[in-house]
Amino acid sequence: MGGVGAKTYMGWWGNMGSPAQKYITTYSVSPYATKPFKGAAYNAVFNTFRRTKNQALFVIIPGVIVWNIYAQARDYNEYLYTKAGREELEIANAA
Description:
It is found in: Mitochondrion inner membrane. Keywords: Electron transport, Membrane, Mitochondrion, Mitochondrion inner membrane, Respiratory chain, Transmembrane, Transmembrane helix, Transport. With 95 residues, the chain is mainly α. It has a domain of 39 residues. 56% of the residues lie in helices and 0% in strands. The longest helix is centred in the middle third of the chain and has 41 residues. The protein starts with 39 loop residues before the first helix and ends with a helix.
């Protein structure tokens, strides 16, 4: 009765009774040695500042241009609702 039968335990996965594997190295890090959020708040503040500073000109310059166009259009529209503006508009439309 030396053969493998239905009730013979072969071992857990990787330990099936065969010779041990050679040249396999396993590395691990203790959960007590890791600090996943070390410096997260500090880096979040200064990284956000740095990224905002680097992109500021790409937002500010077009914003100033758009604001100037809007302000000129608003002022011209207000001018057209004055007496002098209506007279100028009638002359421009009559021509």
